[in-house]
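Homework help board

Subject: predicted structure for assignment chain

Our instructor gave us this sequence and asked us to write out the predicted structure in token form, then describe one feature. I got the tokens but I'm not sure how to describe them. Can anyone check?
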Amino acid sequence: MKHIRTYLLAFLAVTMLSGCGEAEGPVMYGNFEADEWVVPAEGSGRIVWLSIEEGSTFEKGEVVGLIDTVQLAFRKQAALARITALEATIPDIEARTQSLRQKKAAQEREMERISRLVEQGSAGRQMLEQAEDQLAVTASELSAAQTALQQEANGIRAQTKPLLVEAEMLEDQISRCVIANPEHGVVLTRYAGMHEYVATGHPLYKLANMDEMVLRAWFPGDQLSRVEMGGEMQVSIDIPGKGMKHYTGKVTGIAQKPQFIPTQVQTRENRTTQHYEVKIRVPNDGSIKPGMPGEVRFAGNSEPGR
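My token output:
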């Protein structure tokens, strides 16, 4: 019985040692970074309101500030006023040609009357021809007047088109003075404040998406065949006093060209081999911070004792 117990203990010890030897440790190390955006000013002028504080979280589209728009509003009102003044000079073609149209209608009635008299033999053919000639002259005068007035109206409307475009451009500039947060994220750095004057393109603040982090790790060429775009990797971080915390990440980028001496890899063996940068996107529960180091293993493996 004693020999059997000793044999079983030895078998369990060998099995545990064998299992530990087969477990795969960290494949590679890397550092986390967040997707970041530097939000620029889209208008020029004095900042009259900016509710940005470092560490604050804002949603996409949330209004966080305003650049002074008073001068732009005045310019837009001036452009609209010039449009109104020009439109007031557009001729009323119907009113301006009313007398000619009335004259033409009267001549048409007179010609019809003379035509009936000619049919009855009470008037000569020459009288009808004179009436037709007068009607033709009046019709020509009416057509010429309508054409001239229409050209005048078209010319005035053409003058209003640049002013309409100017007003639309000013409206667009006014809307761009409203500072809207472009993406959901946390403010990392603030570059401007209230009452400061900024120009278009001047950075206002840096924003980062902390919901997902990207781990940039370097894989040796002999292990790259195991890395697949969209594949899962186990990513771990060290929590002081609590051991390792594990996450499941997804491969979102694999470098097309290797590097011989990546600065993130410092072991003697790795300095002599080719390495490929791999981007792994990891959901963040708040524990991962930009710049924090992380360990990478192929999914399904864990390091002994962790």
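Reply (TA_rk): Your tokens look well-formed. For the description, you could write something like this. The chain has five helices and twelve strands. That's the kind of observation they're looking for.
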